[in-house]
């Protein structure tokens, strides 16, 4: 009974890991955009935007200025 149970658990773990690894590829290949461009961004996204990279300390600040297009 323990060998059969180990096979069931291992199969479940492999299926779970496979689904987790396949999910980003599924989202990238879907035809529908993840964020609807016709609607404004939610407040969480507009607040999070400028601070998304503040924890990066491996490269440092960017001293180059970029002109607006």
UniProtKB/TrEMBL annotation:
It comes from the Eukaryota. Residues 37-69 are annotated as: Disordered. PANTHER family: OS04G0165500 PROTEIN, OSJNBA0019G23.7 PROTEIN. This is Cyclin-dependent kinases regulatory subunit.
């Amino acid at each position: 009974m323990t060998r059969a149970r180990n096979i069931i658990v291992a199969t479940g773990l492999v299926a779970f890991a496979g689904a987790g690894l396949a999910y980003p590829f599924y989202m990238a290949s879907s035809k529908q955009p993840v964020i609807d461009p016709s609607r404004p961004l939610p407040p969480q996204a507009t607040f999070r935007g400028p601070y998304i990279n503040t924890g990066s300390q491996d490269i440092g600040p960017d001293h180059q200025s970029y002109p607006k297009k």
